[in-house]
Amino acid sequence: MEEIVALTKRLIRFRTTPSHPGEMQRCLAFVEDWFKAYELVYERMEHEGVPSVWVMPKSGRVPILLMSHLDVVEGPDEVFEPRVRNGRLFGRGSIDDKYAVALSMVLMRDHMARLKKAGLDGRHAALGILITGDEEVGGHNGAKKALEKIKASFCVALDGGSVGEIVVKEKGLLTLKLVTRGKAAHGSRPWVGKNAIEVLMEDAKRLQSFFPPFSKDRWHRTVSFNMVRAGEAFNQVPERAEGVFDIRYTENDDMEGLYEKMREATAGDLLVVRKEPVFFSRTSPMIDLLLEVSPESQTTFEHGASDARFLSAFGIPGVVWGADGEESAHSRDEHVVISSIQALYRRLETFVERVRRVKRGKREAPPSS
Predict the structure, then answer these.
(1) What are the backbone angles phi and psi of residue 203, rounded to the nearest 5°?
(2) How far, in Å, CA of 343 to CA of 349, rounded?
(3) Is 297 helix (H, G, I), strand (E, B) or coil?
(4) Closest Cα partner for 61 from 125, 11, 142?
(5) Taking the domains of the chain in order of start, what are their residue ranges?
């Protein structure tokens, strides 16, 4: 695992946040140079300034696609300096999602080397990898566009779960902005005006009433009131306020109908900023095979969202799987458990080789009479 850990450290040092597009370009150039060093043929795409890169077999279609991303959320300077402590690699992107990029790169190289050793060329490859640059901000210019060009029978999005948990469904995402208006007045005479913040707080309570209390498994819609903007001076009653709400929903929710009810219940203007679908894995024998090669794993669901939501639109069955991050993603102590990277690598290696043997057997089988 020393190589994957070292490669992850190099990737962490690139500040690949939305506010540093040049760093994303530098990081992707580093990845491309790595591919060139091992003579891996890759293709690069850029859409609306977002770069993606993939390595695919010559046939143009791959049985297994591994998907990961280089972009990360913002953070203080110190989280971009990787460090290892107590068997964990710390740093921004360590679990979300740069370890996965490094693992994919090394696994792809080793897979191609194994084929070459067996006297086979790239047409026999069972693995392809896709690395994108905008998962944290929606994935529309990365995974969504790249999947239009890539043909795959099954995808493992290395962006969630854990070694023991293979995610087969993730919640959908709805971001709402609520804008309320009042009447400005001097802070010493609040009765002359109407405070837009107070209107916003009343509307927020109305919105929250549409969401149930947390259940044990929490597989139901939830809302989180995450951003507020209001006021221009300490001595002025604000005439405008806005709040942003992060809503996660399940396959059991009618979000169009719910949105209309919430809009009617609020005094302010309720606007849809972003809406993403639920990820729900299609039935596939590949999932059964994954459970065979990783018998201690079980299928589960996840409350977050990832680029896996785009798979259904392209008819690609898949799962979300990954190393263990102990729920540290996006935090100051974000980290990945190093031993879990090794466990994941071994299982994926076995999975890919099993699929390759089946693929080759079908090609070489004599025609039926």
Answers:
(1) -65, -35
(2) 10
(3) coil
(4) 125
(5) 2-170+278-364, 172-276
Interhelix angle 2-12/338-364, rounded to 10 degrees, is 110
CA dist 158 and 155 (Å) reads 9
Task: Please report, to the nearest 10 degrees, the dihedral formed by the alpha carbons of residues 263, 266, 272, 276 taken in order.
Answer: -70
Residue identified by tokens 């209001």 is 230
Residue 236 main-chain phi, psi, to 5 deg: -130, 130
247-283 pLDDT tens trace: 999 999 999 999 999 999 999 999 999 999 999 998 8
Which among 153, 158, 167 is positioned nearest to 317, based on CA atoms?
Answer: 153
User: Which residues are CB-neighbours of 315 under 8 A, at least 6 positions away?
Assistant: none
HSE-up (13 A, CA, CB side) for residue 40: 30
Whether residue 176 contacts residue 275, with contact meaning beta carbons closer than 8 Å, is answered with: no
Tens digits of per-residue pLDDT, 167-222? 999 999 999 999 999 999 999 999 999 999 999 999 999 999 999 999 999 999 99
Beta partners for residue 224, in sequence order: 246
Residue recorded with tokens 């998962």: 135
Q: With contact defined as beta carbons under 8 Å apart, do 158 and 4 qualify?
A: no
Type of residue at 240: R
Q: What fold, for 172-276? A: Alpha-Beta Plaits (3.30.70)
Nearest 5 degrees, angle CA 160-CA 89-CA 43? 60
> In the numeric block, which tokens belong to residue 39?
């003579």
Alpha-carbon distance of 340 to 324, in angstroms, equals 6
| Contacts of residue 357, Cβ cutoff 8 Å, sequence gap at least 6 | none
| Eight-class DSSP state of 323 | -
- What pairing do the DSSP bridges indicate for beta strands 335-337 and 88-90? antiparallel
pTM of the model: 0.88
CA distances from 345 to 108, 211, 320, 367, 369 (A): 11, 40, 15, 36, 41
Domain formed by 2-170+278-364, architecture? 3-Layer(aba) Sandwich (3.40)
CB-based contact 309:198 (threshold 8 Å) = no
Q: CA-to-CA distance for 350 and 188, rounded, in angstroms? A: 71
